[in-house]
Task: structure prediction
Amino acid sequence: MSEFRGMGQASATGQAGADRLSRVARMSKAGVALVAAGVIAAACSSTPKAKPSAHPSTGPVTITMSADGIIGGKNASEATWLTKDVIPAFEKMEAAKGRKVTVNFQGTGVSGTDFATQLALDLKSGGGPDVFDLDGPYYGEFVEAGYLKPLSKVVGPSYASWSGWAQIPKSVQSITEFRGVRYGIPTGTDARVLYYNKKLFAEAGLPTKWQPKSWADIISAAQTIKAKDPGVTPLQIDAGTEMAEATTLQGFLPMLAGTGTLIYSSSTNKWQGNTPQVRQVLDFYHQIYSTGLANPTLQIGAHARSHTFELFSQGKIAIYSESIYLYDSVIAPTPTALFPMADRDSTIGYALIPAEKPGTGIRGQSFVSMSGGGGQTINPYTKHPRTAWAFLTFMNSKAELLKEEGIKSFLSARRDVNAVALKGHPQLTFVATKVLPLTAYRPSLAIYPQVSLQIQAMVQSVAEGTATPAAAAKQFSSAVAGLVGPTHVVNS
Result:
């Protein structure tokens, strides 16, 4: 499992924390920049030389499974689960059917980008492991390079009859899809919600069971808090390049989804530029930052994100748009948390992110979210596609995933796994049942990180007051056109 398994975060909680977050939110600022460097470019992209095998597996079979984890090192929990539980159980099951199957585990402890680059190099030459982990942002890049093929072609039509698909929400299935086509099985994910301080809400006369139904409701609550206690920053929605990908994923993209659109349309191959929806989000940023409901100086200093985390844990920020990482690791009541809150469960509430107005979000939704995540897929050049698919589905079965949950807790892509594993964890249950069915994902395109950098600069200019929403949107559109070409940018 690579460090991009679940996106948008940088953990400082040590090895135990890193293992726990390996299937949820852990994409760092550096990680985004590394993706931008171009994994496929690093692998010298060209049409792969080898052709996939369509022959069925017969006789003794050996396949390999590759993950960015190693026992005693990076992502040790996954490596232990694969080698001690999954592989022996699968080999035993196949032996009971009269088949001699051997699964060799290839674990590494390198950076996520190095892991993906090596995969690209192997696949380019027609080699590589039969089954492997692959983080969400790479699927589109690998597909466009010809390094991945649809499951329908690698496995055949029978792939669609796997019972596990019914347990994975359609929204989550998109992690391993590209332009509506399935290339793998999603494994873990995360989501964005609004966190709020119940004590500050109670002091301001606001309900401690809070669920805003529009952006206006968020602003109203922030105004009430500001009037009650000027020493508290009412609202934290990340804005600026120092916050890096958190600005894009925690703030801008969920708000944009609340206007009814995503930053990129795979059906038209076009990006949002100077559109009414982009300007609408920027108007929201302008309103909250120009009126003191959010603090622009908190967005630009060194270690800005950690500083705002600390302020939230101290009750100095009232509402924070963030991922499950904040609740489950940063302010967890444990010694390994970054800023532990002993009273987290009683003090911190969480709510869905509302659309601009009810029913105006993507798919006509009244609430929205954005998520990161990864999956596992099959080498299109495998000599044993049936065995590889059997192993992949076995590995992602309810029984096997619950064994992994016994080692560490994570937000599974499967409803039935979450229903069992998340008992006693109300916040993750809330995310699994209420948020994942309505979430969306970033485009898995190599150019996305560069677009994200332009989003960050655009939002920062509005938050700091150096550009109007209209001017910032115009500049953003021009910058994106320079990246993808003007015919691939929507303006209106």
